Amino acid sequence: MIYFTSDTHFGDPRVLRIDRRPFPDMAAHDVALIDNWNEVVCDDDDVWHLGDFMSSRAGDCDELLSRLHGRKHLIIGNNDPATTTQAEGWTSVQHYAEIRTDHRLLVLCHYAFRTWNQMGKKSINLHGHSHGRLKPLPRQHDVGVDAQGLRPVTLEAILNEKNRRPSSPQGL
Question: Where is the Calcineurin-like phosphoesterase domain (predicted)?
């Protein structure tokens, strides 16, 4: 199985205030996100984390990665320090990736695109960065934890949720 997520911001207290995540402190936040991740992801699954994984103040990235199930791929975000991008626990690290799954081309980046490769051929842009606040284009999806129930999600879940959501994002 392949999962997607973004903007976990482990160890970054700004998300409690800016994104109003429902936790009393960072310790509770980080434990909940780890538990949520491990509830859905198995060791033989792949997880594409589309940036902003953890704060440099959060400790050792490899130790945190070892606590999370699955093979982890990082798409670098604007808040990923060298201690995160250079950790050995990643299966791959890059700024951008294109993968094929379920006969679909997925264009992965931390940032949402206005246009992307094979957009006219129904490719899908998965991104983070906007914390659920950006009105998406067709076939564009925010996979960040703020937009996806604080857990990694499959492409099928993203597409099914998109069909059930109102056309305008909450809070805008």
Answer: 2-132
